[in-house]
Prior knowledge:
Elements: H1 7-30, H2 37-51, E1 54-55, E2 74-77, E3 80-82, E4 96-105, E5 108-117, H3 123-142, H4 149-162, E6 173-175, E7 182-186, E8 203-206, E9 209-211, E10 217-219, E11 226-228, E12 234-236, E13 239-244, E14 247-250
Antiparallel strand pairs: 1-4, 2-4, 3-11, 4-5, 6-7, 6-8, 8-13, 9-12, 10-11, 13-14
Helix pairs in contact: 1-2, 3-4
Amino acid sequence: MIELRTPAEIEQMRPAGRFVADVLQQTAAAAKVGVNLLELDRIAHDLIRKAGAESCYIDYHPSFGASPFGKVICTSVNDAVLHGLPHDYRLQDGDLLTLDFAASVDGWVADSAISLVVGQPRDADLHLIDTTRRALAAGIQAAQPGGRVGDISAAIGAVAHAEGYTVNLQFGGHGVGHTMHGDPHIANDGRAGRGYPLRPGLVIAIEPWFLESTDEIYTDRDGWTLRSADGSRGAHSEHTVAITEDGPLVLTARD
């Protein structure tokens, strides 16, 4: 079921957006060569406790997950692009890291993701990350009242195709509210003018993610982490966005 939020409810969602943005900034700042992924999860967990927030991940067990996630942040490294389960791994120079985090504050959820390179970057990695960021910006710009979900999908896909990337349609954006994942699904490619109407009050996560040389993925033995089929690297950018009468409002904007 798709729910529309009142302007007052969207205001109530702002603290969740600010908290999620702050946690991503702090965990990203801590992501240095030699830092363990479990340490990044601990940092995020401590911030949740201090804020009196609730994790959306730790007990999360959808049909595609092998078991409850058990951690509070997704840490996807190199050929991992989504749902990276934190494990005993120390970041190495040149690693491409994606941090994806969602939490509930006062009953409202926000969801966001960023990709970065630890240490010395490869030009191809920086280009891939930049493409996801530009695709996210294009998707947000297309999220106008009176439009359609397909407008967002088409805008994201156009950026990807212009750079020669293919697009996986299995996982994409989604509705956000009292829970982390809801309708409508927002594919990262599609046709403008199609799909659910973008009405004021709709709150969605827009999240382009691309792989360097494939659009095929497989699930790691941990039962969660999604990796590229050919070992190429992936990047992911995401914001929670409210559709308002005045246009898109990014609730997870970072300073």
